[in-house]
Structures are given as C-alpha cells and as structure tokens.
Amino acid sequence: MTTKSKEIRMVDTITQYHHIKDEVDAAVSAVVASGMYINGPAVKQFRASLGEYLGASKVIACGNGTDALQVALMALDLAPGDEVITSPFTFFATAEVIALLGLVPVFVDIETDTYNLDPTKIEAAITDRTRCIMPVHLFGHVAHMEPIMELAEQHKLYVIEDAAQSIGADYIFSDGRRQKAGLVGHIGCTSFYPSKNLGAYGDAGAIYTNDEALGDRCQIVCNHGSHKRYHHSRIGVNSRLDSIQAAILDVKLRHLDAYNHARQTAAATYDELLAGVDGLIRPHRAPYQTHVFHQYTLRVEEGRAKRDAIQAQLRERSIPSMVYYPIPLHLQEAYAPYGFKHGDMPVAEQYSAEVISLPMHSELDREQLEYIAQNFLDVYHKN
After folding, report:
1. Strand (E) positions, 234-282?
2. Which site in 260, 338, 367, 368 is 20 to 30 Å from 95, CA atoms measured?
3. Residue 2's pLDDT is what?
4. Which helix (H) or strand (E) holds 179?
5. Which of 59, 56, 97, 104 is nearest to 79 (CA)?
6. What residues have CB less than 8 Å from 296, skipping those under 6 apart?
7. Would you call 322 helix, strand, or coil by DSSP?
8. Which residues contact residue 45 at a Cβ distance below 8 angstroms, ignoring those fewer than 6 apart?
9. 96, 66 in Cβ contact below 8 A?
C-alpha cells in the first residue's frame, strides 16, 4: 500500500538524486574524463569544501565511517588494555574498533531523553587505564559535549566524537558559541554511507579536527603509515575516499543544510501528527544543540511486544520502519568477555525494547507524513 502519489521509502536516495541529477552526473563525468580516480583533484576539493563547511582546519577523507573511528584511535597511540568509554546504545562499529585494537570498551548508560551517553555517569567509570571518551551523536541529536569535555580535561583524556549521524548539527555552548558536531572534542569521525544526511553513492567517511598534529597523524595512519612515498613512520591502514565518491559528496554538501532543514520540518510534522498519545514518546530536542534527525525515533512505553506488533502491521501496509537498536552493545555476544550483564545499563536495555524509527529523509512530503502517521496511530491503538 502506498500514498496516492508516491511509494514510501525508509530512505529515498532515488528521488533525491533526480533533483540533483545534472550536477551529480557532470561531477562524475569530469572525474571519469580526468582518469584520476584515487586521491585526485575531486578528493582535495571535497576535503577543502568540508573543512570550510565544518570549520575544521584538517579533514582526512577515508573509506568509511568505521575506518574513521579506527584511524582516530590509532592516531592516539594507545596501548593494549587501555580503556575507552562509550555508549552501549549505538551501532556495533563504535565499540568494535575499540576491541579490534586491543583496547577495552567501557560502556556507560545513556540519558533518559536524548539516547546519548549520560555525562553524569561517566566519572564513575574512569579508572587509571582510561584514555578516551567516545560519545555518539545518536539519531542526529548531539551529545552534551560541554560536561564531557570538562571531565576529559580534568582527567587528561582524549575525546573522539562519533558524528556519523549528526553532520551539519550544531553544539551550542553555555556562553552561546556554536561548533559543528565532531569539532568540540579532539577528533570527529563521520560516515557518508548512502542513507546518511550527507550520503555518498557507496562507502565513504571522514575524520576532522582542529588539532594539526592529530590531523597529520590520522592522515599518515590512513596512508599505510606513510608521510612520504615509500617512507613509513608507523603502522597504518589503507583507507581512502575515491574520487568519484568525493565528487558526488562535494555536490551534495552544497545541499546539506537544505536536506537537514527538510528533515527537521518532517520531524516537526510527525510531532504534530503524533501528539497527545498515551505511552508514545516523541523525540526530545535538548536546547544545547540542533537536532538534524538522521532518524525519527519514537518510544512505545508498553515495550517490545507492542512495538514489534506495530512494526509487523506497518510492514503489512507497506510502510517501512526500523528498530535501532534491538540489542544494546554490552549484551552482544561479541562483548561477553568484558563481563557486562543484564541490568548494568538499565536505560539502554529498556529503550532497546521500546524504540521504533519511522521513515525519515529529505524527500518526505505532507501527504506521505500524514499517511504514515495515520497508519501508525491506527495500528498503535489496535495493539
């Protein structure tokens, strides 16, 4: 079942492409004609454009968002057994790179309103082996960075921001200053996976910072540990953004603010249409940030059974939805060796049974939003 005019998609990259088709096609054709597919002018141009947009002095383009996180950690020269504090309520990659490098993921529970790492619970998790805090700006809502940075300074810790879902969002300091998400901490990392607010047409990612020394180390790590051809000063990886993806991203970056505004408008419309429903919690917006709605995520307070029934019945009506994330990281089998158990992260555990995300992208119109909301409310009340 669809609306009268359009199929409903969880993410609509197809319609978005048709709106910028001429720009994208011309950019891709220019790269193909140049024959410079790896680290060519298009990559340098995108790095410069992204740096200017974010206010970052150093941008390193890489293969994907997971690589960005791994490279950032590698650039810190941490030792096996060092601890990194992060959220249990996020995609697997955030903690995966910590464990992959022989570091220890230390999970701290999330806030009750934003889904983000709870700053008030971090200090109790800091030990003499803690080296880094890795907050995640989940669903496009920026984590509360000011208290996190105060803790980091107090305990001499690095902060790596997982900004894969928040590109374009602002963090607003208590004195009114604004900084783009990813640039409050020491290093920011993002993903340009196609479904992201700024999505490539394949895998892509970036690392950014205003710390020149850290930025240089990240660049070297990305390039096999090499600062000069055939001269390798450290062990690195091979992670780079190809020129075609860079050209596409450079085009789409010019539209990012409009895309984010369209998402915010869609979220406000959902809020209006889903207001006043008992047991249904709409997304929160903390005043210290500008939510860019990578996802529009609701909570069904009655829990997993009702949430899952709603999702199944929406699917029967050809309305997509997603559950991000059904199992918090500390309860994943892969992290069993670290000794976490049920009850350790009560907020994350509760919310994993309650959350459901509705279609969210820049191409949603009022007709589609009304149709989704009406059907959601229908199946919500029937369960």
Report:
1. 280-281
2. 260
3. 46
4. strand 178-180
5. 104
6. 139, 266, 267, 270, 283, 357, 358, 359, 360
7. strand
8. 246, 247, 250
9. yes
Which DSSP letter does residue 139 get? G
The residues that bridge with 100 in the sheet, in sequence order, are none
| Token duo for residue 358 | 């509705």
- CB within 8 A of 100, min separation 6: which ones? 70
Confidence of residue 4 (pLDDT cuts 50, 70, 90): very low
Helix pair 366-382, 304-316: axis angle to 10 deg: 130
Rounded Cα gap, residues 309 and 171, in angstroms: 36
Asked if 132 and 159 touch (Cβ cutoff 8 Å), the reply is yes
pLDDT tens profile 164-211: 999 999 999 999 999 999 999 999 999 999 999 999 999 999 999 999
213-243 burial code (b ≥16 CB/10 A, e <16): ebbebbbbbbbebbeeeeeeeeebbebbbbb
**What does 58-115 look like in DSSP terms, one character per residue?**
EEEEES-HHHHHHHHHHHTT--TT-EEEE-SSS-THHHHHHHHTT-EEEE-PBPTTTS
d(CA 6, CA 10) in angstroms, rounded, equals 13
Read off the pTM.
0.96
Beta bridge partners of 132: 84, 158
Pairing of strands 58-62, 158-162: unpaired
* DSSP, res 129: T
CA–CA dist 347, 328 (Å, integer) = 10
pLDDT at 3: 47
Closest Cα to residue 121, out of 133, 134, 136, 110?
A: 110
Query: Per residue in 343-364, is it b (16+ CB within 10 Å) or e — as a string?
Result: ebbebbbbbbbbbbbbbbbbbb
What is the residue-wise DSSP string for 346-383? HHHHHHHTTEEEE---TT--HHHHHHHHHHHHHHHHH-
